[in-house]
Amino acid sequence: MEMSPQQPFITTKLDEFTKWAQTSAIWPMTMGLACCAIEMMSIVSPRYDTSRFGAEVFRSSPRQSDLMIVSGRVANKMAPILRQLYDQMPDPKWVISMGACASSGGIFDNYAVLPGVDSILPVDVYVPGCPPSPDALIYALMQLRREIAAGGKANVLARG
Amino acid sequence: MAEVKAGRAATAALLAQLAADLGASLLDAVSAADMDEAVIVAAGLLPAVDAVRANGFNLLLDIGATDHHPLTPRFEISYHFLALPEDAVAGSIPSSGVVPARFRLRVFPDDRDPVVPSLCGRWPNADWPEREVYDLFGVRFDGHPDLRRILMPDDWEGYPLRKDYPLRGLNRRFNPGGLPGPVPPVVTK
Amino acid sequence: MSATDLSIFENERDLTAQPGDERDTLVLSMGPQHPSTHGVLRVMLRLDGETVVTADPEIGFLHTGIEKQAENLFWQQAVTVVDRADYLAPLSNSLCYVLAAEKLLGIQNIPPRAQVLRVMFAELTRIASHLVQLGTHAMDLGAQSIFMYAFEMRERILEIMEFVTGARMHQSWFRIGGLAIDVPKGFLDKMDDFIGRFPERLSDIRAILEKNIIIMDRLIGVGKMTAHEAVEWGMTGPILRASGVAYDVRKAFPYSGYETYDFDICTRTSGDSYARFVVRLDEMYEAWRIIKQAREKFPDGPVTIDDRKILPPPKTEIQHSMEALIHHFKLVSSGFNVPEGHIYQAVESPRGELGMYVTSAGGNKPWRVRWRPPSFYNLQALRKLAPGNLVADVVAIIGSLDPVFGEVDR
pTM of this prediction? Predict the structure, then answer.
């Protein structure tokens, strides 16, 4: 983006403008699964305050959100629902896999828990921790912003 | 029959009544470290529960199951009861709190066809725990109005908390790589 | 009404039906992704206009297999998975499990310092849990700012937790035979700071909420439950006490030395959502009183029992003593055996009587850890409480029941 001091307008490319818009207002979906959901709620609390990054508007409907934070273990019963919610989100959309359980099943290597949410969703950023601290989630959000700025879905980390 | 510890007057009376009411259905009565308990056969459950309730045990705390496989009898259904004094429930609140008692019934149903009478007619909150035991252990409850899976998906196969059910399940539906099998295959790049 | 049974979704409207008629109803599926279900609950509501005719909660969307997982870990290791059941009050869970295991082992001599710290942290957990309930419940009712106040206070508790145990939420700090580590230097200063600040903060929230006309309008008379109904439905904790029954496990069956603390059982008699809300506010104050007393009596001494068969020797000893090394190796590689038996242990978790029916077959792993999850039973009563209310009130009732799905589904 270029701004000239003499002229009261901005010149930019459409691509860059879109990326700027996408990085500056990531709206996560209100979907709490387990323990991590409490830490996810904490990021809007006064101490962490994600409104600094334009990501405090938690949307209750998947139709209005850009980002799905998979916050907790995904049970076999929940997996199809999660996929349906993801399909309902409009493009472009991103997924943060928050915590050990969502990323790999964590300590629950058993019949009930999905061994990583990336077997049903394409994940953009993984956050380690059980549960990750809100700082870690904010760092993941920053990482996601960098990723979007660098080219959006072109270089996702997930196996899809 | 084991001796009853002192200081458990409510349960002592109950144990005496159980012995009189049930006769041969009462297999054992023990004064365990945490509370008094009675072991009964499945057919004697409803009369036993009526006696328990008549002795002031008005709150059904829990219905749980344990799989003792490979021992026989295999399944144990444990019922925990709590007696809250009637005057406390009626609204006269003692400031120091009520002095309740707990009691446990243990039932060992038949191995090949595990069926236990349902307590749904006695306590409304027996519904969900009985469904849970059915879901995770495959023990059926005779007389339950709506016995179906509660925690696992409806189309799940097997009863996960049985000891002969592997920890990782028989067939994970969402394996990375999509291959069925008891253990998820190792994903290599 | 199962997930695969789609007939429930058919809302064929019969135009000949009159209002109030059985056929003139609509089925609404609320959840599993819904902001006010506090997790993954689905409620099938049958509505007549805006009035709920029947409500059928469907659970299991967070079934984690914790009970099965605990059977496959050593006794001491299982503390970690036990923590993750009720994730708003992890220490209450591990306290219950640890007490049960200690009773099976016959351990009586938990050092006083460990006892006091257990009580102190269980009560801190209670405050933190009630704060989350308060904040999210208020948010359900439309009061955004309370969430901010509550979480700001909760952060102070989590800060202490992190300072002492290294983890904000799943501390796994209580161990069979004592505590994992002693508190670090500067702990008492932090506690004094918290004890000094908390009552004022709490009274701030009280001042905003307790006589707030919107809160009172939304909660008074909603989801009413008499004492007899509450007993019948197996309710415990704040919900039973809000109906007027003064039952508290800490008083009735004291554990960890609760009998030496001076605190009251908070009760209300109206049994509605407002009563539950006020009972929780009162309980936070009582928890603060217990913490204050624990701080005053805070004794010196060890935080673990001196039994090398249960807990490993200190690191410095391992470096010198062969025997200590063997003990350590044995504990890490195969744990310890617990005598055969079964026991029911209950603690007063923030949601009610949290019981564990632990069976040991004599091995180094628990044979069975059966939970008595309070919110499982509390949530079940939604079928009783919701009918007759408006849809918006269902949200208020769910919030006042305070279910935690990690515990409901395990």
Answer: 0.89
